[in-house]
Design goal:
52% helix; 3-stranded antiparallel sheet; 548 residues; alpha+beta; 5-stranded antiparallel sheet
């Protein structure tokens, strides 16, 4: 109950935390899993209503009852046969001893009904810790007791209780209560002294203010010492301010946890500091990852590999997700949740999500393939499934292509990695292949002259690959004598290729004109003549010749 009150206050001041030990209901210890497989006769007895079935439950229940001022309930955690009034007084003294002299981590106490035997203790005895008061020490010990036919429970041992009154005589009220007005000490809203309600928000605000001041001083000194390096590298120091403030704040909470007046308060602040430390470290790692990713992105943008920026974004997003998941698992482990079962559940859920998001995962792997193998890059002119265009962006899920009609075509990366892709930008040469038709009136010597001059033009042109260049008379066309020109133009840009091809075609026209012939055009010739019949004797002779 007391822990819940502290955490209610913490939530009010943006410290939303899970109640320590509240996940105990959800937690299954290894012994629980083994017991589930046993026969009904061997299953453990039902849990004690006061939580005394485990050492952890006994200590936590006693502290909560004492913090609420319910010493009637707190006395039920003591192994004492004295009168109820005396037991309640012993409970008050034991609370004082544990608050003033005991340093213990409740989370390390056993949460099993059998407990954990100490070095020199029997199996039915559990050591909580050692309270100190100057040279005096007192071992706080729990003992497993079974009364009548009830299930065994853990109680503060009678040996410990016998020494509590003498040990408590040397202990007084917390030093802060000596200097505070009695009204702040005696008034206990919800069982908590009024001064603690006031000190909690003040501690949080003061701790945050001190953390901000310390981080500001540290960042100022860091910038002063490394001013030249920061200017050259562009290091974003202010991006670390947030997580550093949180980590410094958690360090202050650790200090508060050591000087808190009660054991419950010390455990609470230590618990808060542990959770905030995990959050701060995760935040710091993600900020560092952002700086590294931004640096790589800027370097790739300035270099010739801007397409790899997508894989950097994918790496950053995946790593951030992993950091968040690991941080949550560590926090749940601090809360006492059995993370093994949770990880197993996440694995099964991950498989289900993978089946449901097949296309998304396919596109992500397609992105990795495209960025790693680089069949296309941003700015390349390519053809995908018959669609031509210039690559504008390569994203995590899809690639956008600007068509010659100035429209945008979006192609999923999974599909892009599996289809035929033609990249025109990476061409080292352009093919110049044309069929030139000359008029049928062209004489053979004119045709030879044209072919010889065009060959000389191609062989001597500095932008034509001469090894494969050729000019051939290929066929008698329907209305022309067809010459085929085949040559590769040494150009890397399409505009450059068009200019060189234009120059070649103009020179070929000059060669044709110089030969005295001309280019043919579609035409039809009509012959007006009277055919003469073949002589019958010659006809028979021709048939006889064919038969032979």
């Amino acid at each position: 109950m007391s822990c819940l009150k502290h955490k209610t206050i913490a939530v009010f001041f943006t410290l939303a935390l899970i109640r320590p030990g509240s996940a105990q209901i959800l937690k299954r210890t290894p012994s629980d899993g083994a017991a589930a497989a046993q026969s009904p006769a061997s299953q453990p007895a039902p849990e004690d209503q006061l939580g005394r079935s485990t050492p952890y439950g006994t200590v936590k229940g006693f502290l909560s009852a004492a913090e609420d001022g319910d010493f009637v309930r707190a006395s039920k955690y003591l192994d004492s046969h004295q009168s109820p009034e005396h037991k309640q007084e012993i409970a008050r003294q034991l609370e004082l001893v544990m608050n003033r002299g005991l340093r213990v981590d409740l989370e390390k106490l056993s949460r099993t009904s059998e407990g954990e035997a100490g070095v020199d203790l029997e199996s039915n005895v559990q050591s909580v810790g050692v309270a100190t008061n100057g040279p005096n020490t007192l071992d706080i010990v729990l003992e497993r007791v079974q009364r009548d036919k009830q299930p065994p429970i853990w109680l503060f041992s009678s040996g410990t209780l016998l020494r509590v009154p003498d040990f408590a005589k040397g202990l007084g009220a917390p030093w802060i209560e000596i200097y505070l007005p009695k009204r702040l000490v005696e008034r206990r809203p919800l069982g908590i002294p009024l001064y603690r309600w006031i000190s909690l928000p003040l501690s949080v605000l003061l701790g945050f203010a001190v953390a901000c001041a310390l981080v500001w001083v540290l960042s100022l000194g860091f910038r002063t010492l490394l001013r030249g390096f920061i200017t050259r590298s562009g290091l974003k120091v202010p991006s670390f301010v947030g997580p550093l403030r949180l980590l410094v704040f958690t360090l202050l909470m650790q200090i508060v946890s050591r000087v808190a007046p009660t054991l419950i308060a010390r455990i609470f602040w230590k618990h808060v500091a542990a959770l905030l430390t995990v959050a701060g470290v995760a935040w710091l790692l993600m900020r560092g990852l952002d700086i590294v990713a931004d640096s790589m992105t800027e370097r790739m943008r300035l270099s010739a590999v801007p397409g790899r920026i997508a894989i950097v974004h994918l790496f950053r997003g995946g790593t951030k997700g992993l950091i968040v998941v690991l941080g949550l698992l560590v926090m749940l482990a601090i809360e006492g949740v059995n993370t093994t079962a949770l990880i197993t559940g996440l694995g099964v859920g991950g498989i289900a999500i993978a089946f449901a998001a097949q296309k998304t995962i396919e596109n992500l792997f397609g992105t990795i393939t495209i960025v790693s193998e680089q069949p296309i890059r941003v700015g390349d002119f390519c053809k995908v499934n018959g669609q031509m265009g210039t690559v504008e962006t390569i994203g995590l899920r899809s690639t956008r292509i600007r068509t010659p009609e100035r429209s945008i075509v979006t192609v999923p990366n999974g599909q892009l990695a599996s289809v035929n892709l033609e990249n025109y930008t990476v061409r080292d040469m352009f093919l110049c292949n044309h069929i030139i038709g000359l008029r049928y009136e062209t004489a053979a010597d004119q045709l030879c002259f044209v072919m010889a001059e065009i060959r000389r033009l191609l062989y001597q042109h500095p932008k034509v690959e001469s090894q494969s260049a050729r000019v051939r008379f290929v066929r008698f066309g329907g209305s022309s004598l067809d010459l085929e020109i085949f040559a590769y133009i040494l150009a890397s840009e399409h505009s450059e290729f068009l200019a060189i091809q234009e120059d070649l075609l103009l020179r070929i026209m000059e060669i044709i004109q110089a030969s005295g012939t001309g280019l043919a055009f579609p035409s039809q010739v009509t012959y007006l003549a009277k055919d003469t019949r073949l002589n019958s004797r010659k006809g028979e002779a021709a048939k006889a010749q064919v038969r032979l």
